[in-house]
Amino acid sequence: MAAQASIAVGSQVWVEDPDEAWIDGEVLKVNGDTITVKCSNEKTVTAKASHVHAKDPEESPCGVDDMTKLAYLHEPGVLQNLKSRYDMNEIYTYTGSILIAVNPFRRLPHLYDIQMMEQYKGADFGELSPHPFAVADVAYRLMLNEGISQSILVSGESGAGKTESTKMIMRYLAYMGGKAASEGRTVEKQVLQSNPVLEAFGNAKTVRNNNSSRFGKFVEIQFDQKGRISGAAVRTYLLERSRVCQISESERNYHCFYMICAGSPEEQEKYKLGDPSTFHYLNQSNCYKIDGLDESKEYLETRKAMDIIGISSEEQEAIFRIVAAILHLGNVEFAEGDDVDSSKPKNEKSMFHLRTAAELFMCDEKALEDSLCKRIIVTRDENIVKTLDAEAAKGSRDALAKTVYSRLFDWLVTKINNSIGQDPTSKCLIGVLDIYGFESFKTNSFEQFCINLTNEKLQQHFNQHVFKMEQEEYTKEEIDWSYIEFVDNQDILDLIDKKPGGIIALLDEACMLPRSTHETFAQKLYQTFKNHKRFVKPKLSRSDFTICHYAGDVTYQTELFLDKNKDYVIAEHQALLGASGCSFVSGLFPLLSDDSSKSSKFSSIGSRFKQQLQSLLETLSSTEPHYIRCVKPNSLLKPAIFENQNVLQQLRCGGLWKQLG
Ligand SMILES: Nc1ncnc2c1ncn2[C@@H]1O[C@H](COP(=O)(O)OP(=O)(O)OP(=O)(O)O)[C@@H](O)[C@H]1O
């Protein structure tokens, strides 16, 4: 707990600074509640005493490896400590048992080699420098010795280093739990090789990260009684589908699209591919290359990883054929058709891409065109064919591309799970969670809403865990713990996911009512939550709403909430690909039983995600948690730059502050 030293003239202190967040200086004058400080940047400032913090005069320039060793555990102290360490390439620091990892944005291979793993093997926690291997080792030992399942929760904003940390943990566990001198397709190799495959299909370059995971991931590694890996399962969450058809400036589509464009000349010819800039789904952003990334090499590595996982060469062929088909599909443009409100492929070029897409999907060309340009309306008496105008046909094309891609991704995850295999007799597991951190952008849509719900849930889990630990500690020391404050965010969770009556339930309701719009949905929210202290209707807005999250206020734009929440496959698309001559493609679109295909059975992304989260939280609750908080030191993705304001914001959002005291 932070000690508050008395501040007198001549004391070394920290004061707030608009640029640096905190700056150090010496007290010149104390006048009741106000303190005048001569800062190290030569400025003199006067601040309220409560906004001035003591600085440890004996503070080591190298910092300390555990924040709890700091003389003063306050914001500036913590920030300075992380910064001093970062400047010396010490990117890891403990806060008690939590590991804080500051992204170095440069390779530090010596930190992660086999010798390093050997060193951490069995070492007491805290004995060696802070490291993800140490966290993994504690988890592994606890599992082995106490027989309790463990989880490692890796969090942080996009580009902070979650996936890299997760991979290190997995490597360490594979090292500890692998068979000696093993060869061939062992479980641990398959577990590790699932990473490049998932990354090829689920990662993309964004402005925040050149290799951003566009899905959440929970890897559950199962062990036998001797502590050897005996199975594994991957669960994924909310793949960003919109990216398949739409990319923003300086961003790219999923890596696999560029990989296939860099395939062998035979493949190029077979799939009628060419430069990425010739495809609409890739050329909207004018960004094709990633520094230091050789696409053709990545492609071969992905194929190799697929081999190890046990994806057959026929399956691999079908997978990349589908990827190529999606690219061709995206190049089909539409023009007004002969009838009113109808459409047809725009020109010969569009016909070529339509034909190629049909060939690659192994479906009928005319049927593909019809599924894009027409709808069949089923009435009690007859089926009526309704034509779509060019704009609607384009929407239908994109919907098809997104559906196929997300089915393909789900197939890969299922295949990985089936190939690696589950160990039904396993008593212990270590789960590693790599999931998007709290997000608050200029515009926030349904995705941010789901992501922030996840973070609220994880925060609650964290709060409960810390509270329990504190209780245990105090009980051990025979201290009355009734006054420890339990930070609770249940009210926010109720607002979002209570059934009935929460925002997700109201959204589902709106999606089912034929005449709802985002505006009627917003009105309903305003009405229902007008007295909720976590809900705000922003002034001057008719359809936005603000939620006061634990990490800060976020205003959501409801425009696309209804569309994005609806989870259905257009019947014509289902029929088309279900009838594909390629069993792989038709297998992605299995026939639905009569019952579930009825349009009345509404399926919602929000509700399904809520259930997935519920089940994740149940799994986590049966484990002992360990935390790694990743921090992104700058937005330039460059080494050796530590932006105080930026880091502070992340530490606050991580809810770490409450833990720090
Ligand atoms: N420990 C590390 N050593 C070297 N480079 C790292 C390390 N951690 C992260 N990086 C660099 O930062 C980049 C972003 O890291 P990573 O992909 O793990 O972020 P993330 O938090 O998973 O982001 P997202 O949520 O967007 O997927 C990596 O591609 C790598 O270049």
UniProtKB/TrEMBL annotation:
CDD domains linked: MYSc_Myo11
Cross-referenced InterPro entries: Kinesin_motor_dom_sf (IPR036961), Myosin_head_motor_dom-like (IPR001609), Myosin_S1_N (IPR008989), MYSc_Myo11 (IPR036018), P-loop_NTPase (IPR027417), SH3_Myosin (IPR004009)
Protein name: Uncharacterized protein
Listed Gene3D superfamilies: 1.10.10.820, 1.20.58.530, Kinesin motor domain, Myosin S1 fragment, N-terminal, Myosin VI head, motor domain, U50 subdomain
SUPFAM superfamilies: P-loop containing nucleoside triphosphate hydrolases (SSF52540)
First and last residue of the signal peptide: none
Keyword Repeat: yes
Domain spans labelled Myosin N-terminal SH3-like: 8-57
Family: Belongs to the TRAFAC class myosin-kinesin ATPase superfamily. Myosin family.
Superkingdom of source: Eukaryota
Biological processes per GO annotation: actin filament organization; actin filament-based movement
Positions that bind ATP: G156, E157, S158, G159, A160, G161, K162, T163
Gene Ontology molecular function: actin filament binding; ATP binding; calmodulin binding; microfilament motor activity
One of the Pfam families matching this protein, by short name: Myosin_head
Sequence ranges assigned to domain Myosin motor in this UniProt record: 62-661
GO CC annotations, alphabetized: cytoplasm; membrane; myosin complex
Region spans: Actin-binding: 613-635
PANTHER family documented for this protein: MYOSIN (PTHR13140), MYOSIN-6 (PTHR13140:SF836)
Keywords: Actin-binding, ATP-binding, Calmodulin-binding, Coiled coil, Motor protein, Myosin, Nucleotide-binding, Repeat
Organism: Triticum turgidum subsp. durum (Durum wheat)
